[in-house]
Amino acid sequence: YVDTFGNPNLLHASSWGGSDLFGLCMLITLGASVVIPMVVFSYLDNRRALDVFHALPVTRGKLFWGNMLATLFLLFAPFVVCVLPVAAAVDFSPLWLDPRDGMLYFGLLQTMLVVAAAALMMCGLMVLLMICCSTVVESFGYFCILMVGYTIVVRMGFNLIGQYTFGFSDFWLEEFLLRFTPLSFIFSTATITGDVFWIPALQMTVLGVLLTLLGWRRYVRRKSEQAGGYIWAPVYYIAAAFGSLAAGLYVRAVVSSGNDGLDTAAGAVTAVLVFIVLDTIRHRGFRHIARSAVTSAIGVAGVAVLAVVINLTGTFGYEGWVPDVD
Known about the structure:
This protein is mostly helical. It contains 14 helices and no strands.
């Protein structure tokens, strides 16, 4: 540590592993934001364990916030230990760093803040799913569906709209929606570079707080007898919608036969099948398979009607918009 001040080059990122080591630490933080809530709230899946916890002379609200604070401490205590040296390097960089190294560490600090916001959002979502689903495996499955499905639906949905909309260019709504998922900057740093890194951090922080409050609300109202065979209906339908749409859009893009009708039919069939599979897993059997097929068909028909309306109205009048002179 003393030698570091004598040789300023040791403070350069390449001295401690470069971006690979830094990226690994950030990915570990994001992974911990999913694993830690699964461990802390795992008792919700066991009826006996849940009865023991709820028999304690503590209100459910206090029990939830106690577990939530423990989760956040386990998640962010190691993260803060990593942030402080980088923050110190930014604050005191004129003492031993040239301007280029100072900007390097300032960029790392920006990334850390965005990762912290993403970890808070993912943690809040995982806690909510642990409360709203019946098993740990099911909670993790819905988490993956929501995270990946949401990103695919937004990205491919706007790409599809752009293909059939004259004059369509980068739309502010797509960028706004993508800032709510960390997948948008794990695979692309476009959303966190420059002077606007705080925007995705703020959006994901607000979403994380809202998800945590919703989890607290559901925890207080959740009954003990719902352990081991329960899923909150809104969570299921939102996840099923994103999962089905994402699968359909992805298959349509992959098939790419040159025939729009064939590609669309392949995507629609895939969406219906994915919804039926998810609904079958939810009901633990094929008793409701007919209703699942009807519900998925109605959903696909609704998306088809929306596509026709977009085509007939020029994406709700977008094609008729006249840009400003500037």
